[in-house]
Specification:
Blueprint (H helix, E strand, L loop, with lengths): L2 H13 L4 H14 L3 E3 L12 E6 L2 E6 L5 H4 L2 E6 L4 E12 L2 E9 L12 E11 L4 E7 L32 E4 L5 H12 L6 E12 L4 E3 L5 E4 L2 H16 L6 E6 L16 H9 L5 H5 L3 E5 L2 E2 L22 E3 L10 H14 L4 E3 L12 H8 L2 E6 L1 E3 L6 E4 L2 H14 L13
Parallel strand pairs: 1-2, 4-13, 4-14, 14-18, 15-19, 16-17
Antiparallel strand pairs: 2-3, 3-13, 5-6, 6-9, 7-8, 7-10, 11-12, 12-20, 16-18, 19-20
Helix pairs in contact: 5-10, 8-10
């Protein structure tokens, strides 16, 4: 797939994925169109020797090719990413009224950069759990799909210090303005559900997981279209690159993509990378106690975006480890294991990039700045699998609007496709004697 076609698909995917649930639904639909069979965790499985399957758990997804090679000989080629992004989530009892305005109370999810959320045309999307007339609980996705809310800034005339490192009060300043007057939010939500789901039975809402999102579409910007800007690039960009690599690979090797929810809040959940989801799937693929032997021949590429060199703040980077936009995928290294890359796993990823004719960059955080993390260390520790942390460089991480290079997602896709196709087991060599 050429870059322009790849980017067109990426932009469409970003626009159709305002929540982790929508992102997983989009991936499941696209994988299903290409022959992936959806499995239910509660069922017994009968997998074909050469087959393509997927499993969904909430806002997380695992998709895999069983391949024609034996797991104990070939190992597993795994790519991991996450579906969630920092955002504002609607509280369970959100209805507020102030100064003749109907408002929604929200809770900050993850390490969000808050200032860019002001004065945006916001919509709402997520998952709702309902009860029908027979007492059965069921869930539906919902998306208002148009601007319905805003967080208006206070005018400079009423806050002369607004441009002087103003502090944002998370409890007071972030309530969404929804209308001058309207019904309770639950009623509006049920009305929207009925508009979107013609088959919705008569029911009442029990709970929701609803987030605000910016309605501005993803776009290519720059005089030459050299930048890609959107909400949720961290980390739906990696989900899309991993999915397209899984679809493009030759399916000979056992290959797997895992996209977890809740990375931005620590991954400790039933659908997070610190939960059991991936291990549950792997133990069904490798029964009879064979999983440790398979993992010893396997490699996980944890794909999560990296900090690109910012033209206004070059001093925030280590001079020798400052990746640039459109410079290719970034290998992320941290001596204190905030990233799971080792010298050996990093060398393997460099070989995949070389084979794909893809340039590779390296990121190391400054010693005087805290380093973020990814699902990589959690999965590496939980499974004991060799792991390389990589990602596309970007600006504005955790903002409501982020920017990446127009080349980089496609370059990552090419490197991951080579990784999935590699014939030799991707594990590192056995330890040599001292």
């Amino acid at each position: 797939m050429e870059r322009d076609e790849f980017n067109a698909g990426l932009l469409d995917f970003l626009d159709r994925s305002p929540s982790p649930y929508h992102a997983v639904a989009q991936m499941a639909a696209r994988l299903g169109d290409r022959g992936f069979v959806r499995l239910a965790e509660r069922d017994s499985w009968s997998l074909k020797p050469v087959g393509s399957y997927m499993v969904v758990r909430g806002g997380s997804l695992v998709a895999f090719h069983t391949g024609s090679a034996e797991y104990l000989e070939a190992g597993l080629r795994m790519v991991g990413a996450h579906t969630d992004s920092p955002c504002l989530k609607v509280k369970p009892l959100p209805d507020l009224c102030s100064a003749h305005s109907r408002q929604l109370a929200v809770e900050v999810y993850g390490g969000a950069l808050l200032a860019p959320w002001f004065d945006r045309d916001l919509s709402l999307a997520g998952r709702v759990t309902l009860e029908d007339q027979r007492g059965q609980l069921f869930s539906r996705l919902v998306d208002f799909q148009r601007p319905v809310a805003q967080i208006p800034s206070l005018a400079i005339h009423l806050d002369r210090q607004a441009n002087e490192n103003r502090t944002i009060d998370r409890q007071r300043d972030l309530n969404l303005v929804l209308a001058s007057d309207c019904e309770p939010f639950a009623s509006l939500l049920l009305q929207r559900l009925r508009e979107q789901h013609a088959d919705l039975p008569k029911s009442r809402i029990h709970a929701w997981d609803i987030s605000a999102y910016d309605t501005q579409p993803a776009a290519l910007i720059g005089v030459r279209g050299e930048y890609l800007t959107s909400a949720r690039l961290d980390n739906l960009l990696s989900c899309y690159a991993g999915m397209q690599a899984l679809l493009a690979c030759d399916r000979r090797q056992p290959t797997l993509l895992v996209c977890n929810d809740h990375e931005e809040v620590g991954s400790r959940s039933a659908t997070g990378a610190d939960g059991s989801f991936l291990r549950d799937i792997l133990e069904r693929l490798c029964p009879g106690g064979s999983l440790p032997r398979v993992l010893a021949r396997s490699l996980l590429v944890s794909a999560d975006n990296a900090h690109a060199l910012h033209p206004n703040y070059p001093q925030k980077h280590d001079g020798n480890h400052a990746p640039r936009l459109n410079g290719g995928p970034v290998l992320k290294v941290n001596a204190n294991q905030r990233y799971a890359t080792s010298d050996q796993s990093g060398a393997l990823f460099r070989r995949f990039c070389d084979a794909a004719k893809v340039p590779m960059q390296t990121f190391v955080a400054r010693n005087d700045l805290a380093c973020g993390s990814t699902i990589g260390p959690l999965v590496a520790a939980g499974l004991g699998v060799a792991t390389a942390d990589v990602g596309c460089p970007q600006w504005g991480m955790h903002s409501v609007r982020e920017t990446a290079g127009a080349d980089d997602a496609h370059l990552l896709h090419r490197a991951l496709t080579v990784f999935y196709n590699c014939v030799a087991p991707p594990a590192v060599a056995a330890e040599s004697a001292p």
